[in-house]
Automatic annotation (TrEMBL):
It catalyses: RX + glutathione = an S-substituted glutathione + a halide anion + H(+); 4-maleylacetoacetate = 4-fumarylacetoacetate. Keywords: Cytoplasm, Isomerase, Phenylalanine catabolism, Transferase, Tyrosine catabolism. Residues 1-82 form the GST N-terminal domain. It comes from Fregata magnificens (Magnificent frigatebird). This is Maleylacetoacetate isomerase. Its main location: cytoplasm. One of its GO terms (molecular function) is maleylacetoacetate isomerase activity.
Length: 210
């Protein structure tokens, strides 16, 4: 497999966690979203992903983009360890939380939107994350065990950790979100979340390495 990734991309990080949890080794091709006016806009990368976004994964003779589509494929083809619970209610909760983050929070504060916000980008990002986290904190109070849904790591957790990292980068006060904070801390102790962390990637700038 070949993963096209950017060290700081939260969407790429979700997929890196999934690959690590499932023990899938891969070659990494860095796509720098800032350098050369954005390497994702090159003709070479547009041929890989017409949406000109990371991540993209070449695997089993196909090329997939969109982080959740990639994770669902890995789940379908390499089911261990399971990232979607078998219980239909828990499975729906996992998908709900994942969608809440990947549709309701992350796209509103990603690079392409922030570029259009100019000087207001920090305030905009904080507002998007805060409103999303207010809802997410309430949801998790009903679904969480050790992790987002019960005590097993799921697709929801793969979305949570990168989003909390974004919140910290945009200096969001995490005080009002004790459940999110507790789950995030527990997940960051797991090896798959450590090795996939933005501070540990081949394309991480020296000053941001852990």
């Amino acid at each position: 497999p070949i993963l096209y990734s950017y060290f700081r991309s939260s969407c790429s990080w979700r997929v890196r966690i999934a690959l690590a949890l499932k023990g899938i080794s891969y070659d990494l091709v860095p796509v720098n979203l800032l350098k050369d006016g954005g390497q994702q806009f090159s003709a070479e990368f547009k041929a890989v992903n017409p949406m000109q976004q990371v991540p993209a994964l070449k695997i089993d003779g196909i090329t997939l983009s969109q982080s959740l589509a990639i994770i669902h494929y890995l789940e379908d083809t390499r089911p261990n360890p399971r990232l979607l619970p078998q219980d239909p209610k828990k499975r729906a909760q996992v998908r709900m939380i994942a969608d809440h983050i990947v549709s309701g929070i992350q796209p509103l504060q990603n690079l392409s939107i922030l570029k259009q916000m100019g000087e207001k980008k920090m305030e905009w990002a904080q507002n998007c994350i805060t409103s999303g986290f207010q809802a997410l904190e309430q949801i998790l109070q009903h679904t969480a065990g050790r992790y987002c849904v019960g005590d097993e790591v799921s697709m929801a957790d793969l979305c949570l950790v990168p989003q909390v990292s974004n919140a910290e980068r945009f200096k969001v006060d995490m005080g009002p979100y004790p459940t999110i904070t507790r789950i995030n801390k527990a997940l960051l102790e797991l090896e798959a979340f450590k090795v996939s962390h933005p501070s540990q990637q081949p394309d991480t700038p020296a000053e941001l390495r852990a």
